[in-house]
UniProtKB/TrEMBL annotation:
Organism listed in the record: Chelativorans sp. (strain BNC1)
GO BP: transmembrane transport
All copies of domain p-hydroxybenzoic acid efflux pump subunit AaeA-like beta-barrel, residue ranges: 275-365
Region (Disordered) residue spans: 1-32, 167-190
GO cellular component, one term: cell envelope
Gene3D superfamilies in the cross-refs: 2.40.30.170, 2.40.50.100, Helix hairpin bin
InterPro entries: AaeA-lik-b-barrel, MdtA-like_BSH, MFP
Protein name in the entry: Secretion protein HlyD
């Protein structure tokens, strides 16, 4: 039989052992001292770091500003456009790309034969002009002689007319003889007038000076100028290098090519005259002026700094001399710091350096003036 539980039976209490926590230890004042020291040190560091940065920044600002630097700088060398001053066919060419030439070296020659012929013609014309002047001088002498003869003839006929008038008054000479004498005198006077005009014409042909030197006569001077022009054009058939430099853009220049007057054929980059054009911000030019020392470092030779001198500061910004200057008269104008070109002359040009026009460089100019404190500037003597 199933056992029947007794409702009156009491459940035995279950004892749960509770672990009693021990007493909590309170911090003593002696244990708080290290933590206070750490907090003070942390506070000091937190205050000292910004203060040190502020002092360092102030010192940097006060002592900076003396050296103005820009990497917007490029080497410049004169570029000469070589052209022929006369037209003709090239018969000799001595140029090639990147070839170094010295001043006076023959670059090319144009066919000189047509110009030799022109010079011979000009010389012949000169001799003809000289002969013409001699002929004019002879004509002048002849006109003077004719004028003297005509003058003496007039004087003689005037005497004859007076004699006929006296005889006619006495009734000895006939009226026809008197009329004939008057007619002869009139014809002689007309002949004298014509000879005097011939003398004046011959004198004018001699430039008003019958004793003028042959080569000073205008006709001869004109012939001399034509001869000199022909000789000059003949000399221009040989084109020489105007300066030391390097040939560029000559890949298409060949013998047999026909050249026109003034047409650019190739370029010559001078190597003896080099400068650097640095575009400084307008805010960097406060204390910059010509004569100040500078240092130039080309990107090609980063370990070869070169000495330079500020030679010139441009009269305007680069935008002012551009093909299309900026127009700021609009409602959407935004102020942009402008750049002004500064020209620097290299003090020592090292021949072993391969300097080519257009090379990039970094320029540092010693202005000799630092920022200083607000309202003050600090000047430094530059060596």
């Amino acid at each position: 039989m199933n056992a029947i539980s007794n409702p009156e039976a009491k459940a035995e209490p279950v004892e749960v052992e509770q672990q009693k926590a021990g007493p909590v230890a309170l911090p003593q004042p002696a244990d708080l001292k290290p933590k206070k020291k750490k907090n003070r040190l942390r506070m000091v560091l937190m205050l000292a770091a910004p203060l040190a940065l502020a002092v360092a920044g102030t010192w940097w600002w006060v002592t900076s500003g003396r050296y103005q630097e820009t990497d917007d700088a490029y080497l410049q060398q004169p570029k000469l456009s070589i052209a022929s001053q006369i037209a003709g066919r090239v018969v000799e060419s001595n140029v090639a790309n990147s070839m170094h030439v010295e001043a006076g070296a023959v670059l090319f020659k144009v066919d000189p034969e047509p110009y030799r012929i022109a010079l011979a013609q000009a010389e012949a014309a000169l001799e003809g002009a000289r002969l013409q002047v001699e002929q004019l001088r002879a004509s002048y002498s002849q006109a003077e002689a004719q004028a003297r003869d005509a003058d003496s003839e007039v004087a003689y006929l005037e005497t004859q007319l007076k004699r006929q008038q006296d005889l006619s008054g006495k009734g000895v000479a006939s009226q026809s003889s008197l009329d004939q004498a008057e007619r002869n005198l009139q014809k002689a006077r007309e002949s004298l007038s014509a000879t005097r005009q011939a003398v004046a014409s011959a004198l004018a042909a001699l430039g008003g000076n019958p004793k003028i030197e042959t080569d000073k006569h205008p006709t001869v001077l004109s012939a001399l100028a034509a001869r000199d022009k022909a000789a000059y054009e003949l000399a221009q058939t040989t084109v020489r290098a105007p300066a030391d430099g390097i040939i560029a853009q000559a890949s298409d220049f060949r013998n047999g090519q026909f050249v026109s007057t003034g047409t650019p054929l190739f370029s010559l980059v001078e190597t003896r005259s080099s400068w650097v054009e640095a575009n400084f911000k307008e805010t960097q030019l406060t204390h910059m002026k010509p004569g100040q020392k500078a240092e130039i470092v080309f990107d090609t030779y980063p370990d070869r700094p070169l000495e330079a001198t500020v030679e010139d500061i441009s009269a305007g910004t680069g935008a002012e001399f551009s093909l299309l200057p900026a127009q700021n008269a609009t409602g959407n104008w935004v102020k942009v710091t402008q750049r002004i070109p500064v020209r620097l002359k290299l003090q020592i040009e090292e021949p072993e350096l391969l300097l080519r026009t257009g090379m990039s460089a970094t320029v540092t100019v010693d202005t000799g003036v630092s920022h200083g404190f607000p309202g003050l500037t600090t000047a430094h003597a530059t060596e």
